[in-house]
Design brief:
36% of the residues lie in helices and 26% in strands. It is α/β, with parallel strands linked by helices. Strand 9 and strand 10 (209-214) form a beta hairpin.
């Protein structure tokens, strides 16, 4: 679903990503773990076409982001770190607007909106302005929105910042369920080691380089720590 081949991105003299390569198969929940400044957000900007790499190749579902960007992005859903709902619109209008941008017929869109909101306990929020929702509810709406066009790859850029523990667990559980039901792939960026308990795979990024890649247990063993948290702190000190 996702393939990076020797990706490099610079900002002037500073190297944000250096010779980064990995691939995600279908049905994989991967955590991109790294401290602030590791290059996680830069990578997500590359994967969504907001930036172009200085070197290397990015492919989503077999489509090159350099040569076939619109085709590649049809397979991508995104929840950004910063809130991206229109707070003055109702939840339903926010979701319908996104569905219209993807060209979904209204009947299909409304069916998917109803299904997603029911799954995440949002059915009674549809008529409410987004600004009236809690932080956890807004994140759930953004997840429903990201899944409306049934993307094969879902990108989550530190989506639980500011959420309470229950909202964080609900969001992670909903994505695990989508991976199981549809065989989607998830790349979830985080600096919170405890979130990796939900992952099939952990990619440890530090200063633009991939330090380790594998199951949480494999990464812990590779880095030589007693726990993943201890290994992470030691490797990124």
């Amino acid at each position: 679903m996702l393939k990076l081949d020797r990706i490099t991105k610079r900002y002037g003299e500073r190297v944000a990503l250096s010779d980064l390569s990995f691939a995600l198969p279908a049905g994989c929940f991967a955590m991109l773990l790294g401290p602030n400044g590791a290059g996680k957000s830069t990578l997500f900007q590359l994967l969504t076409g907001l930036l172009a790499p200085d070197a290397g190749e990015l492919r989503v579902a077999g489509h090159s982001l350099r040569d076939a960007l619109p085709r590649a992005l049809r397979h991508v859903g995104v929840v950004f770190q910063q809130l991206s709902l229109d707070l003055d619109l109702s939840v339903l209008r926010n979701l319908r607007l996104h569905a219209d941008l993807h060209g979904l017929p209204r009947a299909v869109a409304d069916a998917r909106i109803g299904e997603g909101c029911a799954l995440l306990d949002l059915a009674d929020t549809l008529a409410r302005p987004a600004r009236e929702l809690s932080g956890g509810e807004r994140r759930k709406v953004e997840l429903v929105r990201a899944l409306l066009h049934r993307p094969q790859l879902l990108l989550m850029d530190e989506p639980t910042v500011g959420l309470d523990p229950k909202s964080r667990r609900d969001l992670l559980a909903a994505l695990r369920d989508d991976v199981r039901r549809r065989g989607s792939s998830v790349l979830w960026a985080t600096h919170l080691v405890e979130e990796t308990a939900f992952a099939d795979r952990v990619l440890l990024l530090h200063r633009g380089r991939l330090l380790a890649d594998g199951t949480p247990a494999d990464v812990t063993h590779t880095l030589g720590g007693d726990t993943l948290e201890a290994a992470f702190l030691e490797a990124t000190a």
